[in-house]
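User: Predict the structure for this protein chain, please.
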Amino acid sequence: MADKRTSIIVCRCEEITDEEVRKAVKEGATSVDAVKRVTRAGMGLCQSKICYLNIAKIIHEETGIPVSKLIPMKHRIPVRPVKIGDLDN
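Assistant: Here is the predicted structure, written as structure tokens:
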């Protein structure tokens, strides 16, 4: 099953796979924010609106922590590049 997990995308925005998230959890990232810090899952344009439940489910499967007990991921405003000329007003 490990071969199949290498190609399952959990976070589409950052192209993070199931295998990468499971590895992070096995190495001690037992909260959604910790997984985000290690893998970047949830840091894309959707800000985890699509992948949050996938990440939470994997944490539950690997640790046994109920999804309802996981603290939701902190949401931050997406940062986008700005041209220097746009700042000169």
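The chain has a mean pLDDT of 87.
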